[in-house]
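Reopening: Putative toxin-antitoxin system, toxin component, Fic family still failing for me.
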Amino acid sequence: MIKKHVFANANKRTAFYVLVKFLRLNGYHFSVTVDEAVEMCVKIAVESLTDEKLAIYSKWISEHSCKETGKQ
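Support: Ran it again with your exact input. Result attached.
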């Protein structure tokens, strides 16, 4: 979403919301500061998407995600 600019505006915000919603629907909690989220979304928007960058983004998501406990 961030790279393809599917909307006239708010592509980064929408992509971030979709990420958080996807994780929640799959039982994960995602926790970052607003500044961290903005920094990562901007990086994704401006950098070339390579396998190495994708691995970095995936690692960042994993490091800021944890399985929710006590949910049924």
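Residues 11-25 form the longest helix (15 residues). If you still see a failure, please send the error message rather than a screenshot.
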